[in-house]
Amino acid sequence: MKFIEASKHYFDQAAKALDLGERLKRQLSTPQREIKVELTVPLDSGEIATFVGYRVQHDSSRGPMKGGIRYHPCVDEDEVTALASLMTWKTAVVDLPYGGAKGGVNCDPRQLSQNELQRLTRVLTDRMQDVIGPYRDIPAPDMGTNAQTMAWIVDQYSNYHGWSPAVITGKPVELGGSLGREAATGRGCLYALEALLADQRRSIEGITVAVQGFGNVGSWAARLMAEQGARIVAVSDVTGATYNADGLDMAALVEHVQKTRGVINFKGGEVLKAEEILTCPCEVLVPAALEEQLTEVNAKDVQAKIIVEGANGPTTPEADETFRRRGITVIPDIFANAGGVTVSYFEWVQNIQQYRWSEERVNQELRARMTQAWADLKGAAKNARDLREAAFMLAVSRVAKATLLRS
Ligand code: NAD
Known about the structure:
Layout: H1 3-17, H2 22-29, E1 33-42, E2 48-59, E3 65-72, H3 77-93, E4 99-106, H4 114-128, E5 137-141, H5 147-161, H6 184-199, E6 208-212, H7 216-227, E7 231-237, E8 240-243, H8 250-260, E9 270-272, E10 284-287, E11 306-308, H9 317-326, E12 329-331, H10 333-336, H11 339-353, H12 359-381, H13 387-406
Parallel strand pairs: 3-4, 3-5, 6-7, 6-10, 10-11, 11-12
Antiparallel strand pairs: 1-2, 2-4, 7-8, 8-9
Helix pairs in contact: 1-3, 1-13, 3-13, 4-5, 6-7, 6-11, 6-12, 11-12, 12-13
Bound molecules: nicotinamide-adenine-dinucleotide.
Residues 185, 212-218, 236-238, 274, 288-290, 310-312, 337, 340 line the site of nicotinamide-adenine-dinucleotide.
């Protein structure tokens, strides 16, 4: 099953288990607002290019909507809609006072210069400035966008509304971004794993871990887990994979990737075929690259006993079935990678308070949120077949309750 269909499948399952009823089910599955805009942008060559941008605002019953902006050639209405609903469930699982939204522009950012990207982003903000806002919908970075993109958005939005840093998160620290935001999603993966291990009366010390993807999420997850004593035995990225049964030297690997832009040819490990990262010997697997990586084809060969979903949608529902049958625990994306949106929430809180928190406080509050959400998840898991089903039931019931109270 494709990622786009899977999020609807999990929602339908939860709605059935919670006996939501047709009216509420339709209300929660229908986006509140879908926006499609034409973006006309002068290129450096003098030509005029036209792009299509989307913003889907899925649900705001628990607070203003929250979700990233993606610049990618595959962006379309269906993808943005699926990702928007996933944000509603993710913010609800970790009990942030937010709903869910997502946006994107169908473009290839690697083919655009910085000036072209800036013009595109400012035109997008012109088109969206009346539907986003600190108490309406708060975008953030996603694939193909970064802190610089957020800086252009806050600047352009502020031309209309006065200085408004809380309109967007993932900003550079100089413009009101939060300390700790860069590492937050990987750190959240660490806290999620530690919570599960604590329940099993185990520590992370000496646990073997394989990580697919060495970008923002994967590299921070690997580094922070290694700092706590885990042995990172394998890491992959788009260039290839590297394996060392004794544990990869994280500091040396990070330096190698900074210098060469990939994990391939790392001297401290043996070469592994890229796809073997998912089935190599390890106790914990962290898919932190792309969706639909663990499928009915490879799920039977996975050796890990715990999967921490750093990426969005890395496991198909068919693979989930296999993992359930084989007794492999999957910590689902809407909880495991919620560290990023949680620290985005802290950024918004700091912007509204006009008061900066220390990095130590950010990390402490993140741990507290993740730990509480884990306790809530375990409570929900008593009535579910696995943690993903529990996470969806927890999220959907919270959103349903808020919706009913407001109607
Ligand atoms: P990123 O662009 O920083 O890193 C992606 C990594 O995946 C890169 O190392 C890339 O080389 C690697 N990769 C790409 N194709 C690959 C392949 N076929 N095999 C192995 N590796 C491959 O992206 P990111 O921000 O780290 O996001 C990764 C995933 O986590 C995405 O699914 C994203 O939606 C999700 N996510 C990110 C955040 C965040 O805060 N960054 C928050 C929640 C979820």
